[in-house]
């Protein structure tokens, strides 16, 4: 395993689920992060999809125990913005050579998105073997990942996209899966910290 993949694997092993967060209002960042960490989900993926995402990374890093990363990182500029804000890991929906090279150069734990055998082969060629499988359900669900993994057993995954409390156990039972990503713990709108913490605790208790 490459060093960068080893460091991202540490993040993947913090909990069975990485919450994928779309923070619409900066006021939500602190209560959401506190509730998730209190519930046992320390790795937090803040997607760069909203205007306050970069600020949200900075705010969430103040929560003791939180390991805050950036998601929806599409190019080297996004990667730099995320690192400047203090992101500790980087997640992308796909992989381009430009983005992969930037992650290698900046030596940041990087979880590139893959959806098929060719994507996984490009990632392996670049030295990445800890990968996101996205969009996990739409790309064929657990049977697809199982089939892709058969010839590419050195790659291990965090399936994300359509993962739910109902199907997470099936994903986590696969040899190729280290953890899953999902947004179900934090629905849109004003956060309900008690509910988020309870849902995080259930997610943190999933077997793998
Ligand atoms: O933003 C990114 O970088 C992505 O790759 C997409 C997210 O991982 C999915 O949108 C999460 O999917 P749901 O759990 O189905 O909500």
UniProtKB/TrEMBL annotation:
* One annotated GO molecular function: 2-dehydro-3-deoxy-phosphogluconate aldolase activity
**Pathway the protein takes part in:** Carbohydrate acid metabolism; 2-dehydro-3-deoxy-D-gluconate degradation; D-glyceraldehyde 3-phosphate and pyruvate from 2-dehydro-3-deoxy-D-gluconate: step 2/2
- Known catalysed reaction(s)? 2-dehydro-3-deoxy-6-phospho-D-gluconate = D-glyceraldehyde 3-phosphate + pyruvate
InterPro entries from the entry? Aldlse_KDPG_KHG (IPR000887), Aldolase_TIM (IPR013785), KDPG/KHG_AS_1 (IPR031337), KDPG/KHG_AS_2 (IPR031338)
| Domain of life, per lineage | Bacteria
Q: What is its EC number?
A: 4.1.2.14
Give the UniProt keywords, A-Z: Carbohydrate metabolism, Lyase, Schiff base
Q: Which family does it belong to?
A: Belongs to the KHG/KDPG aldolase family.
- Provide the protein name: 2-dehydro-3-deoxy-phosphogluconate aldolase
Please name the Gene3D superfamilies in this protein's record. Answer: Aldolase class I
Signal peptide (from-to): none
| CDD domains in the cross-refs | KDPG_aldolase
Query: What is annotated about its quaternary structure and interactions?
Result: Homotrimer.
């Amino acid at each position: 395993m490459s060093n960068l993949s080893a460091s991202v694997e540490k993040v993947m092993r913090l909990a069975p689920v990485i919450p994928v967060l779309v923070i619409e209002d900066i006021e939500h960042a602190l209560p959401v992060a506190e509730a998730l960490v209190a519930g046992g989900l320390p790795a937090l993926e803040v997607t760069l999809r909203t205007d306050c995402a970069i600020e949200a990374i900075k705010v969430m890093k103040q929560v003791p125990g939180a390991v805050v990363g950036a998601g929806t990182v599409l190019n080297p500029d996004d990667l730099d913005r995320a690192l400047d804000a203090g992101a500790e890991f980087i997640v992308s929906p796909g992989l381009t050579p430009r983005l992969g090279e930037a992650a290698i150069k900046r030596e940041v734990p990087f979880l590139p998105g893959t959806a098929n055998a060719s994507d996984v082969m490009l990632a392996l060629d670049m030295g990445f073997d800890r990968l996101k499988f996205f969009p996990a359900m739409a790309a064929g669900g657990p049977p697809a990942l199982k089939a892709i993994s058969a010839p590419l057993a050195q790659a291990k995954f965090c399936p994300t996209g359509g993962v739910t409390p109902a199907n997470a156990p099936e994903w986590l039972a696969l040899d190729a899966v280290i953890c899953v990503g999902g947004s179900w713990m934090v629905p849109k709108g004003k956060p309900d910290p008690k509910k988020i913490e309870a849902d995080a605790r259930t997610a943190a208790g999933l077997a793998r």
